[in-house]
Write a structure and sequence with these properties.
The structure holds 2 protein chains of 2 kinds. Helices cover about 30% and strands about 25% of the residues of chain A. By secondary structure, chain A is an alpha/beta fold. In chain B, a hairpin with a 2-residue loop joins β10 and β11. Classes of the chains: A alpha/beta, B alpha/beta.
Chain lengths: ~325, ~325
């Protein structure tokens, strides 16, 4: 019996995309991901647009069925759960989306929105539910008087608080937060991040935190999985990732973070080109066309995600040579 | 002292809707000098984009109204120009790059035909010279396969490539001032780093002045010579980038910097600014930051603080520094 709260095993999700009248080809959004979450931890999944992180988020909470592989929660398969079992799983697995406006029904008051999960899961009678909702509003820092308002009457930060209250309504064990602050100003972001932290302590939550922002990841996560084109290329503790990044893509992501200290400004290694389309991922190592270190082997053989140190897995053929400085970056790539 | 490329005094922008008038921008001064990259930074709704649009005469009226004591581009008073004269300056003298290159490029024309339009209108190029220059524009933007890109439609390009086309088109006529409104906000960080490096390079070679509008203080720190910080329609602080980050004076600037998660690994609770940005329809009296300010004093609720030079080149609008 494992001690993990949630496990993803060889998780794959392909979407068919029309490429002709009768033909379609797969978009490999998630292409073989293994993850295991300890209770109470925050695992960040970081990567750029199209890397599959939002698809992974939806797979983990059972909103999408995997093409192959499985998600195991409490010894049960999330993907195969039906009817009653699925309902119980959904209570334990909740998600907060990026755009709180798009994910809140504009015709319902925010009080009704937060109450919905309690109705669906038959949790309490009407008056107990109202009390519960008021309590949730207080927990996310909204006055209970706001329950009568509609989403459009709230600011972006307040709407995200409503979305968080809704996610907490069923007392979940795991909350997946998919870019919960990326549309918000930094001053509002700071409040939401602080709130998520304090809720984690008071409710004993486990988080999967999806983000493209390395500053936010460093602040929130215990461990980080770096995704590139549907695969995890590096998985380690937050400290190790920032102090000793292994994969060239992780290094590039870190180097690209704009620094607010002008002494660090400018003139650093950047990778060239855009992330390729997940419809036509490059063969072998998927990062090789943009990698300043790429060698012949990177174009021929796909590197597996391998343990390089305790709690540090990296998928790169050249990581030892790069770390020891034995291969030089080719900046003309 | 050389003459500024752009000099704005007492700019105010009002919008009227349903009989209610709100001031998005409330009396700001702004200078951009030759070859300078100036940052205009602030949060959603502070008036930074309205300021940019007003310089190009792009605020629709009604509902908008733009007043200013002066808005000079070199020797030209922009507010006195006829629409046709302004059109000549737009693109050739001042050009602009927007946040979302997909909406500023026409989806039904190829990149080549859109570049050709700019080069024909402002530089009178035709035929093979036109084609040659279009290829040059893309090559200067370090665009791979310029021949192919000319035949492509905007949707066939990635976000980063589209922004390269936009910057190329904006720079094609050698403008003296480029206004870039959140040019990298929609892009991934690795692509953002490339586009910002490209902008710096292009600027160094052409000597064009840049007004960079952004919400990201990191982008300012890495790209600007000088910064204006806006809050609720007013400029609250301006300084050289080095001075602003070394010693921010305004409580708003200080709070904004503390709200950014630290990459150095400090994981203590983030400092927050209580309350929310006021609506431009009903701003607080006195200093507009007073309801949210940790160091508010009695006078802050009545008196509007003037923007005063506290150190050489470092201006701040805050009553805290008046006693000192």
């Amino acid at each position: 019996m494992s001690t993990y709260l949630l496990e993803a095993r060889s998780l794959v999700k392909h979407f068919p995309v029309k490429s002709g009248l009768f033909r379609s080809r797969p978009l490999r959004a998630v292409d073989g991901v293994d993850l295991a979450l300890e209770p109470g931890e925050t695992l960040a999944v970081v990567g750029e647009s199209g890397c599959g992180k939002s698809t992974l988020a939806r797979l983990l909470v059972g909103l999408l069925r995997p093409t192959s592989g499985d998600v195991i929660f409490g010894g049960r398969s999330v993907a195969d759960a039906r009817a009653g079992a699925a309902r119980i799983l959904r209570r334990d697995l909740q998600i907060v989306f990026q755009d709180p406006y798009g994910s809140l029904n504009p015709r319902m008051t925010v009080g009704t929105i937060v109450e919905r999960p309690l109705v669906i899961h038959h949790m309490g009678d009407a008056s107990a539910r109202r009390e519960n909702v008021a309590e949730l509003f207080r927990a996310v820092g909204l006055p209970p008087a706001f329950m009568a308002r509609y989403p459009h009457e709230l600011s972006g930060g307040q709407r995200q608080r409503v979305a968080i209250a809704r996610a907490l309504a069923t007392r979940p064990k795991l909350v997946v937060a998919d870019e919960p602050t990326s549309g918000l100003d930094v001053s509002v972001q700071a409040k939401i991040l602080n709130l998520l932290r304090s809720l984690q302590r008071s409710y004993g939550l486990t988080y999967v935190f999806i983000s493209h922002d390395m500053r936010v990841v460093r602040h929130m996560a215990d461990r980080v999985a770096v995704m590139y084109l549907g695969r995890i290329v590096e998985l380690t503790t937050t400290t190790a990732l920032f102090d000793a990044p292994g994969h060239p893509y992780t290094r590039a992501l870190l180097a690209a973070v704009p620094q607010t200290d002008p002494r660090f400004a400018g003139r650093r290694i950047t990778v060239q080109g855009d992330p390729p389309s997940p419809l036509t991922p490059p063969g072998a190592c998927r990062f090789h066309p943009r990698c300043p270190f790429a060698r012949d082997i990177c174009r021929r053989v796909e590197p597996p995600l391998e343990r390089r140190a305790p709690d540090h897995e990296i998928a790169c053929h050249l990581v030892d040579e790069i770390t020891s400085g034995r291969v030089a970056a080719d900046l003309s790539v | 002292m050389t003459q500024p490329v752009l000099s704005v005094r007492s700019l105010a922008i009002e919008f009227t809707s349903l009989g209610r008038t709100s001031r998005a921008v409330d009396g700001i001064d702004l200078d951009v000098h030759p070859g300078e990259t100036v940052g205009l930074v602030g949060e959603t709704g502070c008036g930074k984009s309205a300021t940019a649009l007003s310089i190009l005469g792009l605020i629709p009226s009604p509902p908008g109204r733009v007043h200013a004591q002066t808005m000079r581009f070199g020797d030209v008073e922009l507010l006195a120009l006829e629409p046709e004269e302004l059109r000549q300056i737009r693109g050739a003298g001042i050009s602009m790059v927007f946040q979302e290159p997909m909406t500023s490029l026409d989806p039904s024309f190829t990149v080549g035909s859109q570049l050709a339009e700019v080069l024909r209108t402002h530089r009178g190029l035709e035929g093979s010279a036109l084609r040659q220059e279009s290829l040059e524009v893309l090559a200067r933007m370090r665009m791979p396969h310029p021949e192919r890109v000319l035949r492509q439609y905007p949707f066939e390009l990635s976000g980063g490539m589209r922004q390269r086309v936009m910057i190329g088109a904006a720079m094609a006529c050698g403008p003296r001032l480029l206004i870039a409104d959140e040019p990298t906000t929609a892009l991934d960080v690795t692509v953002q780093a490339q586009i910002l490096a490209l902008l710096r390079d292009v600027q160094r070679h052409s000597g064009t002045s840049v007004l960079l509008i952004t919400h990201d203080l990191g982008v300012v720190a890495e790209n600007c010579d000088r910064v204006y910080v806006m809050y609720a329609g007013r400029i609250v602080e301006s300084a050289s980038t080095r001075d602003l980050f070394a010693e921010p004076l305004h409580p708003y600037t200080q709070a904004l910097l503390r709200a950014i998660p630290d990459v150095s690994g400090d994981r203590s609770e983030l400092a927050v600014i209580p309350g929310e940005v006021p609506s431009p329809a009903s701003p607080p009296s006195g200093c507009r930051f007073n309801p949210r300010c940790a160091r508010v004093m009695a006078g802050c609720r009545q008196l509007v603080p003037a923007l005063v030079e506290r150190r050489p080149g470092h201006f701040v609008a805050c009553h805290l520094y008046e006693a000192a």
